[in-house]
Amino acid sequence: MSNRFAINSIILLLLLNIVDATVTIAVIDAGIAEEVNPIMDFFLNMGYIHFLFVKFSTVSLASYVFWKFRDKKAAAMGMIFSLCCYICLVLYFCVILL
User: Fold this and answer.
1) Torsion of CA 17, 18, 19, 21, to 10 degrees
2) 76 Cβ contact list (under 8 Å, min separation 6)
3) Rounded to two decimals, what is the model's pTM?
4) What is the distance between the alpha carbons of residues 94 and 41, in angstroms, rounded to a whole number?
5) Residue 23: closest CA among 32, 14, 13, 36
6) What is the pLDDT of residues 24-69, one digit of tens each?
7) pLDDT at 1 over 80
8) What is the 3-state secondary structure (H, E, C) of the chain?
């Protein structure tokens, strides 16, 4: 994957992570949804700071790995898969909020 594609993809991934974290907290507080990931639910029950720290750390680590191995096909596939998952998640949020 080219450097430009990698940088743009990582920026998009990090932005989608921020959107996901923000909307997750909002919809859970509103009682519209619940966290289905048991690991993230554990940290969410510990408090927002713990939840956000783990969520941002995980995606930041994945972004670093994608950048470090950007010349490998598996990294490009992982990045594209991650972006597709996050885009689907944001679309899901749009559906439940509308």
Assistant:
1) 80
2) 1, 5, 70
3) 0.86
4) 21
5) 32
6) 999 999 998 889 999 999 999 999 999 999 999 999 999 999 999 9
7) no
8) CCHHHHHHHHHHHHHHHHHHHHHHHHHHHCCCCCCCCHHHHHHHHHCHHHHHHHHHHHHHHHHHHHHHCCCCHHHHHHHHHHHHHHHHHHHHHHHHHC
- b or e along 35-61 (b: 16 or more beta carbons within 10 Å of the residue's beta carbon)? beeeebeebbeeeeeebbebbeeebee
Give the residue carrying structure tokens 């909002």: 26
Which residue is associated with the tokens 């720290």? 53
Residue type, 73: K
Among 35, 72, 70, 71, residue whose Cα is nearest residue 50 = 35
> pLDDT tier at 93 (50, 70, 90 boundaries)?
confident
